[in-house]
Amino acid sequence: MIPTPRTALATAALLALAAVAQAQTPPAAAASAPGSAASGPAAARPPADPTAPKPFADVIKGAKEQPGLFPIWRKDEKVWIEIPKEAFNKPFLFSVNVANAVGERGLYASQMLGDELAEWRRIGNHVQLIALNTKFRTANPSAKLAIEQAFSPSLIGGLPVASADHPDRKSVLIDASSLLLNDIPGYSTRLEFAYRLPFAPDRANSFIESTRADAQVTTLTSRVHFATPRIPAPPLVPAPVPVPTPPQATPDPRSMFFSFVYSFRALPEVPAAMRHADPRLGHFMESYADFGDDLKANPRVHMIARWRLEKKDPNAALSEPVRPIVYWMDKNIPGKYRAAVKAGIEEWNKAFEKIGFKDAVQAKQQPDDADWDNMDSTHASVRWFTGADVGFAIGPSNRDPRTGEILDADIGMSDVFGRGSRRLASDDVLGLHAHDQAAASNWMGERSLRVLSEQNCTYMADQANELGFALDLLALRDGMDMNGPEAEALAQAVIKDVVMHEVGHTLGLKHNFRSSTTVTQAQLKDKAFTEAHGISNSVMDYNAYNLPLKGEPKASLTNTTLGAYDYWAIEYAYKPIAAEQEAAELAKIAARSTEPQLAYGDDFDQGVGGPYDGFDPRTNQRDLGDDPLAYAKKRLKLSQELWERVQTRQAAVGDDPLRNRRSIFESFRQLGMTANNISKYVGGLYAERVVPGVTTGPAFKPVDNAQQREALRFIASGLLSSDSFKFKPEFLVTQTLDYNEWDRGLPISIPDSVAALQGRVLDRLMSPNTARRLIEQGAYLPEAQRKGAVSLSEVYGTLQGAIFSELKTGAEIDRMRRSLQREYLRRLQAQLNRATNGAAVYADAFSMARWHASQLLNELRTASAKPGLSVETRAHLAETQDMLNSMLKASLVRS
User: Fold this and answer.
1) DUF5117 domain: which residues (predicted)?
2) String of b and e for 244-281 (b: at least 16 CB within 10 Å)?
3) In 517-577, beta strands by DSSP E
4) Phi-psi group of 153: left, alpha or beta (phi > 0 → left; psi -120 to 50 → alpha; rest → beta)
5) How far is Cα 223 from Cα 258, in angstroms, rounded to an integer?
6) 604-612: long-range contacts, CB 8 A cutoff, minimum separation 24
7) Contact 467, 545 (CB under 8 A)
């Protein structure tokens, strides 16, 4: 046999080493007699290297193998992962889920944490698990080296090999515990965020809990103990910023366990066909910068996230898919809710049938005796979990970063569905908090953080909170039995609605917070229409409940089916199109964006904070109908009806002592969201998704002056008026506490709830963003329309006049109004502080605020001189004057 170049080189090297060894043999040893102590094979063998890896067979002696993508060897508590030689430097998908948690403050079970494109790398006898950098790419071979040199990958973990190479398979072992019992998900940071305590993994009390392997995936579950040495003593003096309490849901706050499910999944050998995103529709995306073409102005590439869906019969008008999208329903889902969950999943088949797929989406029930966990990366699932303070659902997914293909999805469903839908309004004392999946550092990598942030969803939390309001009102108005068939039907409808929403996320669809404005007020009152078409043109909106005013006809309370937008978004993502026709056909589909039913606005459009405060009043959470302003007025009337009815409700034996308190707080919470939405009209801009060269018309247009002024009048006369919030003293004094609880709260305070509501209005109307838009909106209007535009002075004057109306009438200023005026002064002080608000673009806002503050000071002086005022009012006026004097006399800080 003619040796290969590599074999020839190895043979030559061995011969050279043998020659060197012979030349260095001492003459005495060479001349030794055959029977001497220095003779024989033992004398010629060099001493063993104590640092050399043990033979493969010695390490796994007595261990049991699980064959798979990366075979697993297990013996007692020892677990090894076998990495074949050909698997090094070959990308795969590495994902992390949390199967068991502590059940509070965002640390919940059955959650997906993220994924990365990863690969094994070997440096001598050291193995690294590397997260590849997918943010910067190129198809140009000559530019690839420059990209690799410019942008670093990240190390997930590294460790020495646990064995020498297998003599035949050329594979090597690594110790799974040394890799996977570390804090790969970054949970020490999440724990610090939740508790402000330094928790860290405790390796001595952590172990590999379970393992599974097949040709497609290798999965290991680590049971990791997190601990902190001590809980610090509380400070002697209260901290200026409230400090979170230590863990409340564990027996010992210093100790807790998490089960992390690590999956190593093979990527598809043939990558899926990618489909480019269009900004007129809302799909999750895999995005990267393509540095292959230096003539392209914008190097960003956006691929939509979607499952691989292909027809079995490409020529059939309606065909089953080669591989359907299967959702496994978790065995923890209560039996009475499984039908509703299944209906919510399979509702999406209506959209896929429109584009030629039969039974594209399937729901399968995990058997109750199943011994496999649907948290691994090959089972899309709907999981049911619980927590001490949880009320949310979420629909994240794992994707192939190369193409955007969705490979796995695990919808998390809180069991508050059951408690919230059936009993929240009558006897449950559950504290609900919106789930912030991206609040703390999510496991690792910018990509995982971005993916989880964009898929963050609080729809169920909001649904559960508002459901308490809806059930309370219906029970008090119509006598609905909380345990009767009507409440049961509503519970099932709510579950189906939320499941449709979350499945939409896992199919690749983002939120659409504008779709609810595409259904008219008349249609919302039409029972036949809402049963056939739903209450919104998308299940991806955060739709409010369709509650009628007293005397109005009843229709569907919640969404019953997919809307026109949902069909459109599925068509764009999944319609089978020949490659040569795809660009033209997708452009044709996207061109329908101007149809009223297909209106679209995402999370940024409705407002996420900072400069992105949401300035289009048509794009909101928890509104309903084509007139958000009319809905806001309706919401206030519904709240006032509930307050009136709650105050006449008779207590019964066995009632929760906090029942009425919770009813009131829930109504204020919903009204607070409405207050934020209605404030968007003032200084608002209508935004349209204009694509240069494709669509025409204005990208931005100021909200009509008449609507801005109508919103301002409603805020002044409704939300800022004490008359809108009437509660009888006889009712308030009867509202008791839960004396069985250590943290039992304080007597109910309506002024505090009203202040929080009104504060949301003031935060928006007195913000720099609103001021800037009001100042600049004239630039968006023709010359003839500028004269009658709503001005910053008009807004500030209207607000100030409504808030301090007593100064002109001479009326007493009650506790609620004094609180509102102080809240106004706090924000006015911030406006007048150029050290914190002093950007040059807000100079006009500063001068206008200062002018109105001076006017207010003069009015206060006049009002203080009026006789007959109570000592409380006189003291408040004196304090207000003093504050304004100090604010106006403060030295200006100039840059």
Assistant:
1) 111-312
2) eebbeeeeeeeebbbbbbbbbbbbeeeebebbebbebb
3) none
4) beta
5) 6
6) 605/513, 605/514, 605/687, 606/511, 606/513, 607/676, 607/680, 611/769
7) yes
Angle between helices 485-506 and 459-478 (to 10 degrees): 160
Using DSSP bridges, classify how beta strands 200-213 and 217-227 pair: parallel, antiparallel or unpaired: antiparallel
Residues 288 and 136 sit within 8 Å (Cβ to Cβ): yes
Tokens of 482: 């909380």
Tens of pLDDT, residue by residue over 199-224, are: 999 999 999 999 999 999 999 999 99
Q: Classify burial at 56, counting beta carbons within 10 Å of its beta carbon; exposed 0-12, middle 13-18, buried 19 or more.
A: buried
Cβ-contact 194, 450 below 8 angstroms = no
Contacts 24+ apart (CB under 8 A), 340-346: 340/492, 340/493, 340/495, 340/496, 340/499, 341/382, 341/413, 341/495, 341/496, 341/499, 343/496, 343/499, 344/495, 344/496, 344/497, 344/498, 344/499, 344/500, 344/503, 345/382, 345/499, 345/503
Cα–Cα–Cα angle for 211, 215, 216, nearest 5°? Answer: 85
Backbone angles phi, psi at 645, to 5 degrees: -70, -35
- At which residue do the structure tokens 């009628």 appear? 548
Instruction: Tell me the two tokens of residue 613.
Output: 């405060």
**DSSP category for residue 718:** I
CB 419 within 8 A of CB 337: no
Q: Which residue has the tokens 């034996």?
A: 653
Task: Work out the number of other CB atoms within 10 angstroms of the CB of residue 343.
Answer: 16
Q: What is the pLDDT of residues 558-590, one digit of tens each?
A: 999 999 999 999 999 999 999 999 999 999 999
User: What whole-number distance in Å separates Cα of residue 197 and Cα of residue 190?
Assistant: 10
What is 467-482 written as a DSSP string? Answer: HHHHHHHHHHHH---T
CA distance 284 to 439: 20
Q: What confidence tens digit (pLDDT) does each residue in 581-621 have?
A: 999 999 999 999 999 999 999 999 999 888 899 999 999 99
- CA–CA separation, 722 and 726 (whole Å): 7
In the prediction, which pLDDT does 13 show? 38
DSSP letter string, 92-127: EEEEEEEEE--SBTTB-SSEEEEEEEEEEEEETTEE
Residue burial 754-789, b: 16+ Cβ < 10 Å; e: rest: bbebbbbbbbbbbbbbbbbbbbebeebeeeeeeeee
Nearest 5°: CA angle at 280, between 279 and 285?
40
276 DSSP assignment: B
**Nearest residue to 586 via CA among 571, 606, 596:** 571
Answer yes or no: are the C-beta atoms of 827 and 803 closer than 8 Å. no
pLDDT at residue number 656: 87
**Which of 162, 161, 259, 158 shows the shortest CA–CA distance to 206?**
259
Rounded-to-5 percentages of helix, strand, coil across the chain: 40, 15, 45
Between CA 829 and CA 469 the distance in angstroms is: 36
> CA-to-CA distance for 734 and 718, rounded, in angstroms?
27
Amino acid at 94: F
Nearest of 606, 724, 608, 616 to residue 668 by alpha carbon:
724
Q: Which residue type sits at 65?
A: E
Start-to-end C-alpha separation, the chain = 83
| Integer Cα distance of 555 and 561 in angstroms | 14
Token pair recorded at residue 623: 């509104």
Give the whole-angstrom CA distance, residue 517 versus residue 622.
Answer: 11
Structure pTM?
Answer: 0.89
CB 643 within 8 A of CB 473: no
Residues shown for the chain: 895
